[in-house]
Design a protein that fits this description.
- The protein is elongated.
- The longest helix has 23 residues.
- The chain has 192 residues and is mostly helical.
- It has one domain: RNA polymerase sigma factor, region 2, helix turn helix motif (Rna Polymerase Sigma Factor, Chain: A), CATH 1.10.1740.
């Protein structure tokens, strides 16, 4: 099943101090900043790229780029938002070179155990619908997919997701709405 959405990690109590130390090239401080972001970033990248291996590679590139650019982090946004922005840009670069989009493997989608109190028919129907929705998300145009994944799968607020994608709020909401409507149409066509 799809993991419960989680908003961007809350700022670390001493985030400003850790950022200052990281800007002085303190690798331990930088590691403390990124450790809380690794799992949510990897999950988001896996859904955007459709591959765990690609997500891991892009995540490593994200961390390398962030380390190289930490001196330029101005603190205008939360550190997590800045890191998400780098990750999305890296994912876009990867997609530009990847001519073939792949569907998400079902194993990557199963992160929670099913409710065993439901009968076998209900479980099968639920799993089928969930897999179909994941397929619909994977087939969305990239700009709509980014919006849907960040907002509906990762649970970022509209404002956070718009900041990550470097969009104004109105433009982000438009992409999100169009992505949701495309998924809804496909679900209605298939399930009535």
């Amino acid at each position: 099943m799809i993991a419960k959405p989680t908003p961007l990690a809350q700022p670390v109590a001493d985030e400003a101090r850790l950022v200052a130390r990281a800007r002085e090239r303190d690798a331990v401080a930088f590691e403390q900043l990124i450790v809380a972001q690794a799992a949510p970033l990897q999950r988001m990248l896996r859904r955007m790229l459709g591959s765990t291996a690609d997500a891991e590679e892009v995540l490593q590139e994200t961390f390398l780029k962030a380390w190289r650019a930490i001196e330029r982090f101005r603190g205008d946004a939360q550190f997590s938002t800045w890191l998400y922005r780098i990750a999305v840009n890296e994912a876009r670069r990867r997609q530009a070179y990847d001519a073939h989009r792949r569907a998400l493997p079902i194993d990557d989608l199963m992160v929670e155990l099913p409710d065993l109190s439901a009968g076998p028919a209900a479980l099968a129907e639920s799993a089928e619908l969930e897999a179909f929705i994941e397929q619909c998300v994977a087939e969305l145009p990239v700009s709509y997919r980014e919006a849907v994944v960040l907002r509906d799968v990762e649970g970022l607020s509209n404002e956070e997701a718009a900041a990550v994608l470097e969009l104004d709020l109105r433009n982000f909401k438009s992409r999100l709405h169009r992505g949701r409507m495309a998924i809804r149409r496909q679900v209605e066509e298939r399930y009535g």
